[in-house]
Design brief:
The protein is an alpha+beta fold. The chain has two helices and four strands; from the N terminus they run βαβββα. The N and C termini lie far apart (43 Å).
Length: 95
């Protein structure tokens, strides 16, 4: 029933202004709408809704990611903008 419908991604945040700044200015996603409850961004055709919440649950696993053509270049570029990447023991990762 949903095979031809677009998916909407949700990301919770306690600080909507700070989240908007990160997704808009660091990740470069254009803002399409904002109100007191959410900020809607365009993630290459996918609606990403940053939702204001009282508390953010920390699930301990990835909930949002991007497929990129040059992961090394993307990581380097994001690190230059202040993004910190985590390295996990037991998962093969290069430098």
């Amino acid at each position: 029933m949903l095979a031809t419908s677009d998916v909407v991604a949700f990301a919770p945040t306690k600080d909507l202004a700070r989240a908007r700044s990160f997704y808009e200015h660091v990740l470069g996603l254009p803002v399409e709408d904002e109100n007191a409850f959410a900020c809607v961004l365009n993630a290459h055709g996918t609606m990403l809704r940053l939702t204001a919440v009282a508390e953010v649950a920390h699930p301990g696993y990835t909930v949002l990611g991007w497929r990129v053509t040059d992961i090394s270049g993307t990581v380097t570029g994001l690190e230059a903008l202040g993004v910190v990447f985590l390295r996990y023991d037991g998962i093969a990762q290069d430098a």
